[in-house]
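Chapter summary example.
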Amino acid sequence: MTRPRFSVVIPTRNRADTLRSSLATCIDQNFDDYEIVVCDNGEGAEAEQVVRDAASPRVRYLAPTQPLAMSANWERAVSEAQGEYITVLGDDDGLMPYALAELDALITKYETQAVVWQRGIYTWPTIGVPGEADLLRVPLARSVVEMNGREQILKAVRFEAGYDTLPMIYSAVVHRDLIERHQQLAGRMFLNVYPDVYSAFGLGYLADRYIWTSVPMGIAGLSRASNGVATLMNTSNNAVSTDFDRLNAAFGYIRHPRVPDKMILGPVHVVDCFLHAKDALFPHDDSLVVDRKAFTVQCLAAIFDVDQSRRQEARLIVRASLADNQSLLDWFDSEAPDLPPGKIFSFQPLQLGFDGSMLSLRTTPYDVKDIAGAVTLTTQLLGLTSGQITYEVASWEQMHASVANAWKTAEVAQQAQAAAQAETAEQGTYILAAGAQVEQAELELQASRRQVEQLQIERTIAAEAVAQLQHQLGEAQLAASLRYVPKRLLAKLTGRSPKGKLTR
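The structure predicted for these 504 residues follows.
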């Protein structure tokens, strides 16, 4: 049997209204080699009817057997997938029409086992949280980056990068070999109550290197019955979260003992998933650890309660997660900060419009009522209706960073040039000084030559003087020797008279 290139897996539970729209986006693809697996975990026949109405031979429907915890349903769905690469799509999410064709091209080009994308965000009109409905957020950059799984895990657990930059199966296509390897090592693919976030850490560790793109291949939808809305946001809709907790407890999906037992604190999701992955896959890797003090401060900062008694209750829950370490308890009691209330999680940006990376807008003027409409609008905004995508189209932030880097490079070059000029000037000064020294040496040499010439003249004069003195000495010696010669004989020899007169 030849495997399809992709399996798009849609786990669903009692959300036929959103499933219909989500399934439509999966069928509407400009790619042929794929299957769609709808894994029903509901309590009625509505989801099955949605699949029948779709009437697509690509769709396989898995009927419910018993109510499953979300992670257990995901496990079943992924295990039933036949594709070479697998992705999980929420039943209120949408798949872009170019997604599978483009993912196939990226896999072929980069020969990678995972491709991660930056998600768009759409809040359904039915989200049920005041001020959150009818928002669409679309990333506009078109970049492709090779990432290292372990490096990104460390950044994510330090809250320096989002966990969605890891190969989270909820916003990535992942080769089935990675999933099967994880199942062999840990017994199953999803180990805790957050299957999407957990997969980011589990698969990120096993994938090592993978591709990340800023082009959205899918849009994450947030609707009335979303588990993410129920567990991340302060809402009055407790039925979903109650059902979520009940099924997790029944199937043994529990929080890690080193995280606070308060799910609504955002940092808990990240560290709980990391610690479960570490225990199962890399317990002895000391390069990948949690800074528990820093994590505790993150949790304290996330407490949004204003009422003092509820804030104190939340602090005690955070403190209880440190019970295994007395030194951490002592630190908490003496030094843990009492921070102001944190902000309730919201998908709303500070302002609508383009922020340099994401475009945020209200969808009501465009008559968008569901995820299929959001996908259509996003496709029109991006202009990616056909053909391969051109990447490395920088975002405003990237261009700003490039300009900043260019200025910095120019500044460094100017500093180097100034230093070179200073060195040249110093060398010039040295050369001038050396020239002056040479000139002075030449003058001194000429003076020395003149001195030598003068000495030679004086030597000649001295030699002549010596010769004259020697002559005079000779005459003196001669005169002295004639002192005893008779005067008449001397006069005769010298031609002088005894009195000094000349004789004739």
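To summarize the output: The chain has 16 helices and 14 strands.
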